[in-house]
Amino acid sequence: MILIGRSSWGPPRQWKLWSLPRTALAYVLAIDVIAVTITTVAVRSTLVGPNSGVRHSEWVAFVVLAVASTLHLECARGIERRRETAANTSPHTNLKCLWIFAALLLLPLSLVIPLVVLAYAYSWFRVYGRTVAHRKVFSAATYILASAAAAAVLRAGGLLTEPRVPTGFWSLLVVMAAAGTWWLVNYALVIGAILLASPEATAREALGELSDQLVVCAGLGLGVAIAAVQSSYPWVVPVLMVTVMALHRDLLLPQYQRAAGTDSKTGLATSSYWASAVPAELARADTLRSTVGLLMLDLDRFKEINDTYGHPAGDEALRAVGEAIRAEVRHGDLVARVGGDELAVLLPGASETEVMEIAERIRERLVSLTVSVGTTNGGKAAITGVPASFGAAIYPHVANTMDQLILAADDALLTAKRAGRNQIVAALPSPPAVTDHAENAENADRADRADRAEQSERSDSADHHVSD
């Protein structure tokens, strides 16, 4: 999300909040105002309503959850700092939700909201450092709106008094519906902010990774378990902290895997990841008696884009090319950036016909691709058409090893460029070298027979002269 960034303290007019696009600014401020309104109504209902006041047991539960949440954030401080820095145009997933949802089942909304504020205030000062303040305020506001929506679902389902932990089938359905509502509202609000604040972000980037959202769902489920334990056996809650920390650390594994195998400029696979994937696919093809297609493509006259509009514009064009290619390949195909403007597509199980059809679809899409890029003078320019030359090769029809396959595709790519660019050339099988032992033996046998025939002719000639 583009709202991320570090800043020093400054007067209000210098806040980075005002640098957001107008629609994003209005959206963020509107969510903040709604959250403040919900907070006011919740506090008023607790102080003035027929069941006004907070019970002693609820204050105890609030303190326990506040302490547990703070300890969790402190223990995961290094993890959270690295994860927030890695986030850009996708939702930043965290596990604060498990403590907030547990509080939602145990406490009135007027105490859930202070727990949200406490968690984000502590994160701002202790975990993230002096990051942009409006981002943390907005995140807290989305949590408040999500909690209010989930609380409404709980009340609509008949769970009117705390604790509202599931004790039967119906109450379980209501709690699950509330958890789903909490996730959906928070997720939708964050996606809306990303798309409005980062117009260049694609919907796919804004939605983020499914695995991250599954972790959030797991956190909500763990929140239900914590609420159930807290309502009956509060001293067991510290034991669950071990599970929470293990789950939190597992959040880093898929993130690091993606970072290690993803090119930062294009979002495609890196050359090192691609180099490790090719032999694995060739080995699998040998086992399945299948094929592997390989496309090598080089953008035609890409240097002119960099020279004309600048290297940042070239990066934008390259990113758009990567997205266009991924839109035309099959699920399971691997698209990688293997050089500056050289890309590769690995097509497991593809026949020569399929490889050529996919290459032609990509070629046509790149020819008609229009990319809006920033220029060196701060303006905008539209690049129409980013054509490419293609070299195609099929394993094992063209080559028997990874090196031979890549060389064959590279040679075909070079032929396409020499033939005028913006075209596809398929590699042909190389004629086999005459190194077969049987063939060598046959040649030796031929030579031996020729020698014997020549000797026989000489012998016959000598006999003829003697008889004369």
Automatic annotation (TrEMBL):
Keyword Metal-binding annotated: no
Domain of life, per the record? Bacteria
Q: Which residues does the UniProt record annotate as the domain GGDEF?
A: 290-429
Q: Could you tell me the keywords of this UniProt record?
A: Membrane, Transmembrane, Transmembrane helix
GO MF, one annotated term = diguanylate cyclase activity
Q: Which residues form a coiled coil?
A: none
Residue ranges for the region (Disordered) are 427-468
The residue ranges flagged as biased composition, category Basic and acidic residues, are 436-468
Q: Where are the transmembrane segments?
A: 24-47, 99-125, 137-157, 169-198, 210-229
Q: What is this protein called?
A: Diguanylate cyclase (GGDEF)-like protein
Q: Which organism is it from?
A: Kribbella pratensis
Native organism taxonomy: Bacteria, Bacillati, Actinomycetota, Actinomycetes, Propionibacteriales
